[in-house]
């Protein structure tokens, strides 16, 4: 299948989708568990990423998608490390003899996809590489469905998926959390930042709420907090969960934008 070129319009599409991405409430706990587990193996991902010249969190989310975070499977497609891959791409790695280490498989997977330090690792560029890793079938043949490989568990995706090679179902629903959704939650948790997301600069007056130790009960205050979080999310490099809880993360984001912490924050 012929590839897709990363144009300026496509890059903007990816960034807009990421900035507006919200995780479905029914899936929040699952996403949090996945992110926590990825973070617990960060040092191993960083070691593999350093050798390949790619961001550690790219390898981390690919590992979740392809092998369910199991270090006994190839990063290419999750096939057992006890042999060369049998599914697409088959016969990897070409060099060496099984059983393979996870690190050797990861290095081969990045090499096979021609990913390295010269790759565009901006936010839009990374999302492009994630969709490319899985394939362009959704974008080319079912453009009414955003790829669940990226957006499953978010409000960007409801249904439609390949249930087998070349077999499409409009009603099937992905049960796997999308890679972009994992990245979004990692960004919300302050675990990762993207090189093209500069420090924000406020250009209009924000809605101010006071720091809270728990989610407000008052509906008016809750909505004002959500409005503030949505406003902060309009700035590059700010990724907040819009939950109406103006806690430390919201105060930190407010500081990045305005230079001030929320009222009630002892740091201000």
Radius of gyration, rounded? 20 Å
Main β-sheet, in a few words? 2 strands, antiparallel
Strand content: under 5%
Number of helices: 11
Low-confidence stretches: none
Kindly describe this structure.
With 268 residues, the protein is an all-alpha fold. The protein contains eleven helices and two strands. It has helices spanning 8-19, 28-40, 42-52, 56-67, 102-112, 123-134, 137-141, 148-151, 179-188, 219-232, 248-258, and strands at residues 161-164, 167-169. Strands 1-2 form a two-stranded antiparallel ribbon. Helix 3 crosses helix 4.
What's the topology here?
Layout: H1 8-19, H2 28-40, H3 42-52, H4 56-67, H5 102-112, H6 123-134, H7 137-141, H8 148-151, E1 161-164, E2 167-169, H9 179-188, H10 219-232, H11 248-258
Antiparallel strand pairs: 1-2
Give me a quick take on this structure:
The protein has 11 helices and 2 strands; from the N terminus they run ααααααααββααα. It is mostly helical and 268 residues long. A hairpin with a 2-residue loop joins β1 and β2 (167-169).
Keywords:
two-stranded antiparallel ribbon; 268 residues; mainly alpha; 3% strand
